[in-house]
Specification:
By secondary structure, the chain is α+β, with helices and mostly antiparallel strands. It has 3 helices and 15 strands.
Length: about 170
């Protein structure tokens, strides 16, 4: 676990379709939570509607210290912490911020993948609204895919970015 005073981001599993409820309940009890949401066009027989859906169904991120660790599990819609190598998975602050930036923009749709992509070149986005966001470039099916990895839970958040919207980050050669 972590020291009592320092807060870190953990990942929790939620009951099916309960991400928004967990977010509301934990936030109301004073726990900082993050559920990446994205607007998606859903179609029914009689209509189409733009709805806000979780980018990572079944997951919620909580920013807590050791004191709040057990309190999170008392929510009836929380199943458990995501466990990685025998311990609750911790996500670095910078990865949470990158995902937050990706979902807050609406120019490029975000996809989620559990594939193990081959590491690519480090790139930086130079077009608004994601100017300055750094990540990895992978080519799939002829497209430039910009990837933010959340290693602790083996998830990749991806955007298709035009070639003129990214620049390579120079590597330090000695």
């Amino acid at each position: 676990m972590t020291p009592t005073k320092s807060k870190v981001w953990y990942v929790i599993y939620t009951r099916s379709r309960s991400e928004k409820k967990v977010l509301a309940d934990l936030t109301a009890s004073g726990i900082t939570c993050f559920v990446p949401m994205q607007k998606k066009l859903r179609q029914w027989k009689d209509r189409k509607k733009l709805v806000e859906a979780p980018l990572l169904p079944g997951y919620c991120f909580v920013h807590i210290n050791r004191v709040d660790y057990d309190r999170v599990l008392h929510n009836q819609n929380v199943i458990s912490y995501v466990i990685f190598e025998g311990k609750a998975a911790i996500v670095p602050d910078n990865q949470i911020e990158r995902v937050r930036e990706m979902v807050e923009q609406s120019l490029f749709p975000v996809e989620v993948s559990f594939e193990n992509f081959i590491s690519g070149q480090q790139v930086e986005i130079i077009v608004p609204p994601l100017t300055g966001l750094k990540g990895e470039l992978v080519k799939t099916h002829g497209n430039n895919r910009f990837i933010i990895r959340i290693d602790s839970i083996s998830i990749n958040c991806m955007l298709d970015i035009p070639a003129d919207g990214i620049v390579l980050i120079p590597t330090d050669k000695k």
